[in-house]
What does this fold into?
Amino acid sequence: MNVAIIGSGTMGRGIAQVAATADCSVKVYETNPEIIALSQSKLAKIMARLVEKGRITNEQAAQIQANISYVDSLKDLADSDLVIEAIIENLDIKKAVFSELEGYVSADCILASNTSSLSIASLAATCKQPERFIGIHFFNPAPLMKLVEIIPAIQTSEAVTQKAKSIVDDWGKLTVLAKDTPGFIVNRVARPFYSEAIRQYEEGIADFATIDWAMKELAGFRMGPFELMDFIGNDINYTVTETVFQAFFYDPRYKPSFTQKRLSEAGFYGRKSGRGYYNYAEGATKPEPNTDQALGQQIADRIVIRLINEAADALYFNIASKEDIDTAMTKGVNYPKGLLAWADEIGIQECVHRMDALFDEYHETQYRCSPLLRRMAKREEKFYG
Ligand SMILES: NC(=O)c1ccc[n+]([C@@H]2O[C@H](COP(=O)([O-])OP(=O)(O)OC[C@H]3O[C@@H](n4cnc5c(N)ncnc54)[C@H](O)[C@@H]3O)[C@@H](O)[C@H]2O)c1
It folds into this structure.
């Protein structure tokens, strides 16, 4: 199968590796020659490491690298069966690429974008055959993260959706189907992980270290919210939050925080800049958390219930199936449990009670209990079984 990748940055490189490992013939179109050289040397290093660890043989490593070639014109992608675009997150630039590309590829070539935040319908609309257009959203790093969100636009044909899904499944990924709405599944449902952590800090309930400790030790997350924001980069994480907020017509539930905006403005991006919520300079000491169990439990419960409420709302609005919502959060961002399964464990009535208690205190819309949870509590229903 002939696959084309447009853009060889963080994501394009990873997706090219995934397709080449699945024995596809992969052509990469990238405008910056330095990035091509970097991509080749990065891939060679990754292959050497995989051989060293015994995961693949020397022959397989050579084959994977031979499966990838670099081209300098979109015309060279004419024989593609599937094109995945992973260039800069800019609607006009992406539209220009697809308009030109469509003039070269065959009528049955599937066109896909790896966009995190743009509407798939708006990209599809630039094509003469919008029914062949779809969102295929990988997570970073693409070769390691199992999850891929498949996002049909309202224009996408059912056949294209099924074909795109089955191709990515054959690449060894776990696909979930998501509606073409801001943040798809993961970037929507995960918002409270950050916002509710920051909110508790802003209220003076606890410091970063204590909130991170509570989420790891008491709720079972691999990283605390502040560690994770520093890892992702506060510039990137802030932009995702702001983009989702704007795309939801400024729904206050998704409102960004001044705390993170200021960090981003100050250049305190996190690990990559040496300072974020924490100081990463050599010799800097990490602050100690307050390990008071009752305080920690209260902090963790508040973030977890908001995540559960967001997941329930995503199901309520038919963004995805309950199974796909739970899979997306456990495989896309390594949550310790599926949020809807977690709701069952806590008890749906208890979930409603916790949301109502927050709403009673604050009267802010992010604390509004999902109508789905309320309905289920009345009927004594569970998400599973
Ligand atoms: N980084 C992530 O964590 C992540 C995760 C999921 C999805 N995405 C999405 O993937 C896309 C790419 O993100 P990234 O982080 O890999 O970006 P990046 O900046 O690392 O890479 C983009 C690459 O595209 C190249 N490029 C720009 N314009 C081009 C053009 N017209 N033709 C060909 N190449 C061009 C650039 O030279 C660069 O190498 C974006 O839409 C982003 O929203 C990113």
Q: What stands out?
A: The first strand starts at residue 2 and ends at 6. The two ends are 41 Å apart (CA to CA). The mean pLDDT is 97.
